[in-house]
Amino acid sequence: MPESIVVLACVVLGGMGHIPGVILGAVLLAVLPEFLRSTMGPLQHMLFGHEIVDTEVIRQLVYALAMVLIMLYRSEGLWPSPKHEDKIAKLSKRSGKKPVRA
C-alpha cells in the first residue's frame, strides 16, 4: 500500500501522461526522504533537545502538502505533457506551413 501511494505521488507531482515529468517526480520523492532524514532529526535535537516528531511522519506530511499544493496551483504537474496544439504548431513551424484550423 505505501508503495502505491508513492507511485501515485510521483505521477501526480511530475505530470500525468509525460514520462520525463514522472521521472522528475520520482527523483524528487526519492531525494526528499533522505533530505528530511538528514536534516530534521538533527534540527529537532538542536532546537528541542530531543526528537519530537518522527521523520517518517514529517515525510508523510510533506507528501500530503505537496499533493494538495500541486492539485491547487499546478494540476497538470511540475512537467506536464505538451498539449496537442503545441505539437501541431511545432510541426507546422518546421514545414513552413500554417496549421489548418477546423
Beta-strand percentage range = under 5%
- In helices, the fraction of residues equals over 70%
Q: What's the total helix number? A: 4
What number is the mean pLDDT? 80
The count of strands amounts to: 0
Low-confidence stretches: none
Head-to-tail CA distance between termini: 46 Å
Please outline the major beta sheet.
none
Protein model, in words:
This protein is mainly α. It has one domain (2-95). 73% of the residues lie in helices and 0% in strands. It is built from four helices and no strands. The protein has helices at 2-14, 19-48, 55-73, 84-95. The N and C termini lie far apart (46 Å).
List the helices and strands and how they pair.
Layout: H1 2-14, H2 19-48, H3 55-73, H4 84-95
Helix pairs in contact: 1-2, 2-3
Give descriptors for this structure.
mainly alpha; 0% strand; 4 helices; 73% helix
What is shown here, in short?
With 102 residues, this protein is an all-alpha fold. The chain is 73% helix and 0% strand.
